[in-house]
């Protein structure tokens, strides 16, 4: 592979050469400079210092999240290089890591876990927006995590670690905030968490609750002004039982509900004239039982997870009028042809699509972490998943759904998946400085579908099944120059399983009723280190990804969801993340992610040389945090976060009558927080989007007829306390 002087690989090699002499020198220097605290993560399914993990990992603690005033992953996305999050109505989110954003299949490309259980759902393509409430930290693992985390982690994994109770201790924390959107509505949010008092040193219980009514700013013909308000609440309970030093049991249960009347699409003046109601409702119940035995040279961990997820989503797909009106004019002059006596002109104004999804998933993992010898560590286990997806769907004409005696699209989807995987990863220390890792995972699943679908009265049902199997590997070499500099080189593979079509595509389009799995391989080099005796921490990485047999969306005039395999893509990238503590009261943070990806073959939807959809070529952030003295024993606090991303492109060819290619604006925002603190109490005033950016994040394309605009400037106040 040719390296030009501006390539990510060249930048990383230059960074390594630049940082190495300073890091080697700084290990020999001692001063009284402030030190940035060490972060411990579980990226490799064992506790490690972040700086010791030979992969690109970003971690934000509960304090980091609170300092920013964040409550969703989207709020912190640009703090993490190569992470891009798009939110649908504020209650669901699509996560993209390192530029991987395939246009098809709806199966996840990023793994999502809460504690030890996966929360990804089959065939939805997006995940529930998980509030960052009473968490220990968030970890984002970049690059394929196929060996330890398996299917669905083809480009990365996001882990939410909830806070454990502390047996024998009583504490609590709360936060309340109110906010107002310029020319929009007002809203509030709050949460409370704490240990339940028990007179026990072996049992602890922690409860957490969260509620929010987020302000809206889009005016709707149906629902009135500021209609895209979000209502959501969450309740969590987590119990820990430690009867001996060698055994721990924990049980986490959580329930969450979210509702938004409209998803936030509008014209350029924040108005929507859609006559089709487009609410979105989600509900989530999850439980995770973790049992852990600590023995002399090894530990055994069992994780049992269960989730019951419901999603009701409606979309205004009125752009299909251009195709449907010539075929089914949609006014009652044609009504007598379908048995209606009265013929009154009543043109189609809107077409809606309604989907009601229920997903139940049971997972079980048992793994062993063992010290095989003085220089060898082993992580090995088995994983099982049983999932059922059921989704009634319907599409209607508006304003008169009785024009035709049948609906444009109706039916139900039933998809059952049973999966089994075996995995192992060994870490061998060849010397005190040189370490190697070899991992492998074998995965197999069986997918069965019974999808009963009709369109304009014609049956399109499909009953089919598919067996997937995949073997992926990970190889890493890690070298520590000293305590202040570690470098690594790695090769890793990931995969995304194939699936069964939602309807009979073979009869309708000549496509197979099932599509195959896709594969991704990544080569990566990186370095992590500290300078100035711990005052500056940095992480750099460069990578090349080869993406093959991509699952693509088969665009068609009817807009039916059909998928096929085809094409390949490559992504070259560079990542930097650093923090500099100039004093005990002032520190800076910065991040930069470059994802230069393109298709290398023509597909049904993209041409060779075009980028992947909805992925910015770069993301960037810089933050400054300062504390200072105030009278009456108060401590002042000021923080600024500037975050920006490049423009994105979307290509959806094949409809034949709508806009099929668009360039959308990047997201740019400047957030400020100023407040005062004393002991465990704080009050902050904040402004989000201070410069009043009005970027167009999504333009009309395909079936979507309206824009999605950046949230206007928002101001508010928050109060936080604890004991």
* CATH superfamily grouping: TonB-dependent receptor, beta-barrel domain
Strand pairing plus helix content: what structural class?
Answer: mainly beta
Residue share in β-strands: over 45%
Strand element count: 43
**CATH topology-level name:** Maltoporin, Chain A
Summed over residues and divided by their number, the pLDDT gives a mean of 84
Largest sheet: 22 strands, antiparallel, barrel
Low-confidence stretches: 1-31, 330-346, 398-406
Number of domains: 1
**What is the top-level CATH class?**
Mainly Beta
Molecular shape: globular
Radius of gyration: 26 Å
Discrete helix count: 5
Separation of termini?
57 Å
Helix content: under 10%
**What CATH architecture do you see?**
Beta Barrel
3D architecture notes:
The protein is mainly β and 723 residues long. The protein has a single domain, classed as Beta Barrel (Maltoporin, Chain A), CATH 2.40.170. The protein starts with 7 loop residues before the first helix and ends with a strand. The N terminus is likely disordered.
Features:
723 residues; mainly beta; Maltoporin, Chain A; 22-stranded antiparallel barrel; five-stranded mixed sheet; 5 helices
């Amino acid at each position: 592979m040719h390296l030009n002087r501006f390539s990510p690989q060249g930048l990383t090699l230059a960074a390594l050469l630049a940082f190495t002499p300073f890091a080697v020198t700084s290990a020999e220097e001692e001063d009284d400079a402030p030190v940035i605290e060490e972060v411990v993560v579980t990226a490799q399914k064992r506790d490690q210092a972040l700086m010791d993990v030979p992969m690109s990992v970003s971690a934000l603690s509960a304090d980091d999240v609170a300092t920013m005033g964040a409550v969703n992953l989207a709020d912190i996305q640009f703090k993490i290089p190569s992470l891009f999050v798009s939110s649908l109505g504020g209650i669901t989110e699509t996560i993209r890591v390192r530029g991987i954003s395939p246009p098809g299949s709806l199966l996840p490309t990023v793994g999502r876990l809460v504690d030890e259980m996966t929360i990804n759902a089959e065939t939805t393509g997006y995940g529930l927006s998980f509030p960052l409430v009473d968490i220990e930290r968030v970890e984002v693992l970049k690059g394929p995590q196929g060996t330890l985390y398996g299917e669905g982690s083809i480009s990365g994994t996001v882990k939410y670690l909830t806070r454990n109770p502390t047996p024998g201790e009583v504490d609590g924390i709360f936060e309340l905030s109110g906010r107002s959107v310029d020319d929009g509505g007002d809203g509030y949010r709050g949460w409370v968490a704490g240990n339940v008092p028990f007179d026990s040193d072996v049992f602890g219980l922690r409860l957490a609750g969260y509620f929010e009514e987020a302000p809206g700013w889009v005016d709707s013909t149906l629902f009135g002004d500021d209609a895209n308000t979000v209502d959501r609440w969450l309740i969590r309970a987590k119990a820990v039982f430690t009867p001996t030093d060698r055994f721990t049991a924990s049980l986490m249960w959580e329930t969450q509900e979210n509702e938004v009347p409209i998803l936030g699409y509008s014209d350029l003046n924040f108005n929507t004239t859609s006559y089709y109601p487009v609410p979105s409702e989600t509900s989530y119940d999850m439980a995770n039982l973790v049992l852990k035995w600590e023995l002399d040279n090894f530990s055994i961990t069992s994780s049992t997870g269960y989730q019951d997820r419901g999603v009701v989503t409606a979309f205004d797909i009125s752009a299909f009028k251009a195709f449907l009106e010539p075929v089914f004019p949609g006014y009652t002059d044609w009504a007598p042809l379908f048995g209606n006596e009265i013929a009154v002109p009543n043109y189609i104004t809107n077409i809606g699509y309604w989907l009601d999804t229920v997903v139940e998933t049971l997972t079980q993992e048992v793994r062993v972490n063992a010290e095989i010898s003085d220089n060898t560590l082993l992580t090995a286990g088995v994983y099982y998943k049983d999932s059922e997806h059921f989704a009634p769907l319907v599409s209607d004409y508006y304003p008169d759904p009785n024009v035709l005696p049948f609906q444009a699209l109706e039916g139900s989807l039933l998809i059952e998946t049973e999966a089994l995987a075996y995995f192992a990863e060994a870490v061998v220390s060849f010397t005190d400085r040189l370490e190697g890792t070899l991992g492998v995972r074998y995965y197999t699943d069986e997918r069965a579908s019974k999808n009963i679908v009709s369109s304009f009265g014609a049956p399109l049902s499909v009953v089919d099944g598919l067996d997937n199997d995949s073997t992926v590997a990970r190889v890493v070499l890690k070298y520590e120059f000293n305590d202040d500099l570690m470098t690594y080189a790695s090769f890793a593979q990931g995969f995304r399983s194939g699936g069964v079509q939602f309807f009979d595509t073979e009869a309708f389009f000549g496509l197979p009723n099932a599509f195959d799995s896709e594969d991704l391989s990544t080569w990566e080099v990186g370095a992590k280190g500290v300078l100035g005796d711990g005052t500056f921490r940095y992480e750099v990485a460069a990578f090349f990804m080869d993406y093959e047999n991509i699952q693509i969306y088969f665009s068609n005039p009817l807009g039916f969801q059909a998928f096929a395999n085809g094409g390949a893509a490559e992504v070259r990238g560079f990542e930097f993340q650093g923090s500099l503590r100039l004093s005990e009261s002032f520190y800076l943070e910065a991040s930069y992610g470059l994802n230069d990806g393109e298709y290398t073959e023509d597909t049904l939807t993209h041409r060779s040389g075009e980028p992947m959809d909805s992925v910015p070529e770069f993301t960037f952030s810089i933050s400054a945090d300062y504390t200072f003295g105030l009278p009456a024993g108060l401590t002042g606090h000021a923080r600024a976060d500037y975050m920006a991303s490049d423009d994105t492109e979307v290509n959806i060819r094949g409809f034949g009558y709508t806009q099929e290619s668009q360039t959308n604006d990047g997201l740019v925002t400047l957030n400020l927080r100023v407040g005062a603190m004393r002991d465990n109490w704080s009050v902050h005033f904040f402004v989000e989007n201070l410069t009043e950016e009005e970027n167009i994040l999504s333009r009309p394309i395909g079936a979507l007829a309206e824009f999605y605009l950046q949230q206007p400037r928002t101001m508010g106040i928050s109060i936080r306390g604890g004991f």
